[in-house]
Amino acid sequence: MDSRELNEQSFVRACIDNDIETARLLIRRVDINRKDKSDVQRTHLHDACLRNSLEFVKFLCQHGANEFLADQKGRTALHYASSMGSTDIVEYLIKRNTHKMSIKRSQLKFTSQQRTTVSRSGKTYQLQVGGDRVLAQTRYGESHVISYPFSFNERDYEEDSIIEVETNDYVNCVDKENRTPLHYACGEGHLSTVQIILENGGSLYDCDEGGRNCLIYACREGHVNVAEFLIETYDCDINLVSDIGWCCLHYSCAKGYSSIVSLLLSQPSCKIDVVNDAQNTPLYYAIRSCNEDIVKQLLNFDSKIELTEKDWHDLNWLCKYWPVSIQQNLLLRFDYYLDCILCYVRLRTKITSQNTIRSLLENLLIPST
């Protein structure tokens, strides 16, 4: 083993042991941005974020660590810190990459009057900045568009007014699946980290490559405190659907998260019978997750029992094994779909008598006394 490799190993050990003094002695003898030899290809900075060591994060950044370097999956240090809920590290990395600039009012043009972030405490607008300077790099290529959270009224500024603007193209960096640090923080349920990211320009509306936004991540993993914060504070769209047609309600019903379902159903805008690409509603997934409480909630909000073939299979299972109370609730709604059920049974059995089929269904739904 050569001396450089030995220094690298000693430096890694010093970082793991939080031995800052030894790390200082070795810092000039190692490649500060070297990636490890594993399939993940993490840097020293990534590891410091995983260990929640703000001291080492600052130390590494001050000695040339590149915050933008990504691992094999495209995750930066900010992704790692966000997934760990290391709020102090997240704030440090964001502030470190926030830059102030002064521009004239005449240089600004609104690209859209539509707000990109809605908050009760402020608004975020997209601004077009004239000139040749590239202020941001997006997945669509170079762009002159910057996002900055502030309250702005055009009438308050003359054409030659100077406006102080902060830019940050790091807070919304994406991995190879187009997930931002906010996706990671919401998916892991780190509310304080979510708040810090949003306060510093994090975008609520960026979606991953599957079309899922940060609220879907929170609902899919059952983090009701994060979901409630996003909905109540930022009016986050609860009905946004992914590329396969799943909304927040689909995910929470499939996972059996009753508290998330209650939160979503309490919103006046909630659509309870959204049909996904598989032609299934949230009720179907609630039945499959075997969660009586969620099924009752959906039925109380008049969710429709759509009986596709798959639905019938699971409804059959539901009626056979669940308590009489919910069987009765379903039976009250059955007449509307009876023709569909009769047709289904005739196609898959040798029974042709409608009365016989009806009798079988009633015996299934109402156990004999």
UniProtKB/TrEMBL annotation:
InterPro entries reported for this sequence: Ankyrin_rpt, Ankyrin_rpt-contain_sf, Dendritic_Spine_Reg/Scaffold
Domain of life, per lineage: Eukaryota
ANK repeats: 73-97, 177-209, 278-310
Electron transport among keywords: no
Pfam family, one: Ank_3
UniProtKB keywords: ANK repeat, Repeat
Protein name per Swiss-Prot or TrEMBL: Uncharacterized protein
Lineage: Eukaryota, Metazoa, Spiralia, Gnathifera, Rotifera
